[in-house]
């Protein structure tokens, strides 16, 4: 029991020793780079958690919105569009679950089956809580896919930004290291080459 507790405390001490420990071979730029890497890894892990929360929230909101939709049948008052245009609309009548009849406009988004449909054709629609036509309910697989896609995209975006951040910091630190090498070589080089 005591041995496992001792092992559990070692990685943080080892990390602190690497970051703050005295080692004459490690330059200040090396310590700064290690601290930057630790911060960027922590930022990436935070981004992964945030992306997971975003994906879960997106899934729950889509699920809640879909749960509020009720199926209905609309009867077209006029023929549906012949061409597959994105903004096509057609007049229709439908009944609410309480029996009240409503009329309005169905678009190709709220009722994809209106294409090439003659007047008087019954069309399956989805109604929101206020009784207005809404886009068809997504399948559970579609909701999961869109949530996963949002989470993966957010994580990938964070990874790209953090990688660019690391590359920028690394470039600055490498310039600093090379300037140190040049200064050291300028001091030692003439003495070393004169011994030949």
Describe the protein's architecture and organization:
This protein is elongated. By secondary structure, it is α+β, with helices and mostly antiparallel strands. It is built from four helices and five strands, in the order αααβββββα. Helix content is 57%, strand content 15%.
Helices, by number, come to 4
Total DSSP E strands = 5
Biggest sheet features: 5 strands, antiparallel
- Let me know the average pLDDT: 85
What structural category arises from helix and sheet content? Answer: alpha+beta
Strand order of the largest sheet: 3-2-1-4-5
Low-pLDDT stretches: none
Number of domains: 2
Q: Based on CA inertia axes, which overall geometry fits?
A: elongated
Please report the distance between the alpha carbons of the first and last residues: 63 Å
Percentage of residues assigned to helices: 55-70%
How much of the sequence lies in strands comes to: 5-15%
Question: What series of H and E elements makes up the topology?
Answer: HHHEEEEEH
The radius of gyration over CA amounts to: 32 Å
């Amino acid at each position: 029991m005591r041995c496992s507790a001792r092992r559990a405390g070692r990685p943080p001490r080892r990390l602190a020793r690497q970051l703050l420990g005295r080692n004459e071979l490690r330059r200040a730029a090396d310590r700064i780079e290690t601290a930057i890497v630790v911060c960027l890894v922590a930022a990436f892990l935070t981004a992964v958690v945030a992306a997971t929360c975003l994906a879960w929230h997106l899934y729950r909101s889509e699920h809640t919105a879909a749960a509020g939709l009720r199926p209905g049948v609309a009867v077209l008052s006029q023929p549906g569009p012949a061409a597959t245009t994105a903004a096509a609309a057609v007049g229709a009548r439908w009944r609410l679950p309480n029996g009240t009849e409503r009329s309005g406009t169905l678009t190709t988004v709220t009722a994809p089956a209106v294409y090439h449909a003659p007047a008087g054709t019954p069309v399956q629609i989805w109604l929101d809580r206020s009784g207005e036509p809404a886009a068809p309910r997504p399948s559970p697989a579609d909701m999961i896919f869109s949530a996963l896609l949002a989470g993966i995209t957010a994580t990938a975006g964070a990874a790209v930004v953090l990688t660019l951040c690391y590359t920028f910091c690394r470039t600055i630190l490498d310039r600093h290291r090379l300037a140190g090498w040049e200064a050291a070589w300028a001091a030692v080089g003439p003495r070393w080459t004169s011994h030949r």
